[in-house]
Amino acid sequence: MTPAIAYFRTSSATNTDGDSVHRQARAVELYANAAGYDLDSCFWDAAVSGADPVESRPGFAALLKHVVESGVAVVLVESADRFARSILAQELGLAHLASLNVRLVTSGGVDLTDDSNPERVMIRHMAGAVAQYDKAKTVQRLRAGRDRVRAVTGRCEGRKAYTDLRPGLAREARRLARRNPKTGKVRSLRQIAVELAALGYPASSGKPLSHSVVREILMR
C-alpha cells in the first residue's frame, strides 16, 4: 500500500467541535481504503481560512515538515475547497507541493497536482473560482444576518455579556441599585458587587464583580 497523509481544515471556530472534521476523515479514510493508500498520519488546521497561504497554516506547515522528513509523497483531502478557497492560495499551494514532488488527491480521486491535462487544469481553476465566490457570498450572508440582528437587539457577535450568561443577574443588580425607601441611601457599585457575590453571582475568579462590570450591567 502507498503511504499517504490526510489533511483536514475547518474554517471557523464554531466548526471545530462539529461534524466537519469527522466528515472529512470518513471521506478520506473510505477513499484511502478503496484506492490502496495507507494513512501514515493526519494534520488538521482548525479555524483557518481557506484563503490563507498553506505555508502560514500551523497544521499544513507541520504537514510539509513531515513530508520532508518522512518522504511520504501523497496528501489526501476530502475536496479541493478543504485545501484552499481562493485561486491564489490554491495555485501557490499546489506549486509548493509540486516542488516537493508531492501529489494532492481528493477523496473523489482527483489529482489536483496533475498538470498534464489542460482541460483538467481549466476545471480545477473554475472549481477554485466557484469556491472563492461561494466563500465571499457566505461571508456576505453572515454579515447581513449580523446586521439584521444588531438592528433589532443592538448587539450581535462578540463575547456574551454577563447578563446573557447568567439569568437573573441584571434583575438582582437593578434591585440592589434602588434607593432604600427608608434611609434614602444608595449602594455603591462595589457594595452591589459584594451583595451580588453573596447571592451567587461572583466573577469567574470567585471574587465580587468589578465595579465597571456592575456599571455595565446597570446600563444595559
Rounded radius of gyration (Å): 26 Å
- The first-to-last residue Cα distance is 63 Å
Q: Assess the beta-strand content as a share of residues.
A: 5-15%
The level of helicity is: 40-55%
Low-confidence stretches: none
The counted number of beta strands is 4
Strand order of the largest sheet: 2-1-3-4
Mean pLDDT across the residues is 80
**How many DSSP helices?**
9
Structural class: alpha/beta
CATH class call of the largest domain: Alpha Beta
The total tally of domains equals 2
Q: Can you name the CATH architecture of the largest domain? A: 3-Layer(aba) Sandwich
Give a quick summary of the entry.
The protein is an alpha/beta fold and 220 residues long. It folds into two domains: 2-138, Resolvase, N-terminal catalytic domain (Rossmann fold), CATH 3.40.50.1390; 162-219.
Structural features, described:
With 220 residues, the protein is of the alpha/beta class. It is 52% helix and 12% strand. The protein folds into two domains: 2-138, Resolvase, N-terminal catalytic domain (Rossmann fold), CATH 3.40.50; 162-219. It has helices at residues 20-35, 58-70, 80-83, 87-99, 118-153, 162-165, 169-177, 189-198, 211-219, and strands at 2-10, 37-46, 74-77, 103-106. A four-stranded parallel beta sheet has the order 2-1-3-4, sandwiched between helices. Helix 7 crosses helix 8 (189-198) and helix 8 (189-198) crosses helix 9. The longest helix is centred in the middle third of the chain and has 36 residues, at 118-153. It is elongated and about 90 Å long.
